[in-house]
């Protein structure tokens, strides 16, 4: 749990730091875009300051969000998992970002590997199960490494494959792809893993499934999400 003294040695108010971090992670903005938006609001900080805030506080905010949501959704998210992987360039070299979402699009895990094989799939699934338990159904594409990894875990009968069955997770890649373009790719594997984990938690926090709810319900849930964000790491 985050200590109450998180912002103790910072002259800038916690509200401004939270705003800057939210703008950078939630929206497809560059560091300089965030600097300009803050300047428009009368807040004079450099893009390097925004970078420092994101690196310092982003993982803290994400950890607090994740801790609360895992406790709330642990039983509910076990019905069906959708698992998929996409390639991401890191300093010009191809890496793979493995992601799992539940049946409502909640991002459960994001994990980066250098290779796309049984060993990587097994490591990802073990990490996923350690945090969320075991699902009743695991939807994947027809990539053979998934079946091999699930066979080793004794869960082959839980796998489901189909032409359109995995659209849920494939569509969930889109917000990350937009952020990737704004950031002009990644320089290190560690940076990719860090940003993917933080982005997933923040996306979960603000994703209200607005197409499935009335306007009044959406406004209430959005307001609640913003209020909860403003209380992160406040002690």
TrEMBL record:
One GO MF term attached to the UniProt entry: DNA binding
Keyword DNA-binding among UniProt keywords: yes
A Pfam family it matches: DDE_Tnp_IS240
Assigned keywords, A-Z: DNA recombination, DNA-binding, Transposition
Record keyword Hydrolase present: no
Any single GO BP term: DNA recombination
Residue span, DDE domain: 79-208
Function: Involved in the transposition of the insertion sequence.
Protein name: Transposase IS66 family protein
């Amino acid at each position: 749990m985050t200590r109450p003294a998180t912002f103790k040695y910072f002259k800038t108010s916690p509200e401004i730091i939270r705003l800057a971090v939210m703008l950078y992670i939630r929206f497809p903005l560059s560091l300089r875009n965030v600097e300009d938006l803050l300047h428009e609001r009368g807040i004079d900080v450099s893009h390097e300051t925004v970078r420092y805030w994101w690196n310092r506080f982003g993982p803290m905010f994400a950890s607090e969000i994740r801790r609360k949501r895992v406790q709330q959704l642990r039983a509910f998210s076990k019905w069906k998992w959708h698992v998929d992987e996409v390639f991401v360039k890191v300093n010009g070299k191809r890496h793979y970002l493995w992601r799992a979402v539940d049946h409502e699009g909640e991002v459960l895990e994001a994990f980066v590997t250098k290779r796309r094989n049984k060993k990587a799939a097994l490591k990802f699934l073990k990490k996923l199960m350690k945090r969320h338990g075991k699902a009743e159904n695991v939807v994947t594409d027809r990539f053979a490494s998934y079946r091999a990894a699930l066979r080793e875990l004794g869960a082959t009968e839980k796998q489901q494959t189909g032409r359109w069955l995995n659209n849920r997770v494939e569509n969930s890649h889109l917000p990350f792809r937009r952020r990737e373009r704004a950031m002009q790719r990644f320089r290190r594997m560690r940076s990719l893993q860090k940003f993917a984990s933080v982005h997933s938690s923040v996306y979960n926090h603000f994703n209200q499934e607005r197409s499935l709810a009335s306007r009044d319900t959406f406004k209430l849930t959005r307001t609640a999400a913003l209020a909860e964000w403003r209380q992160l790491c406040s002690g």
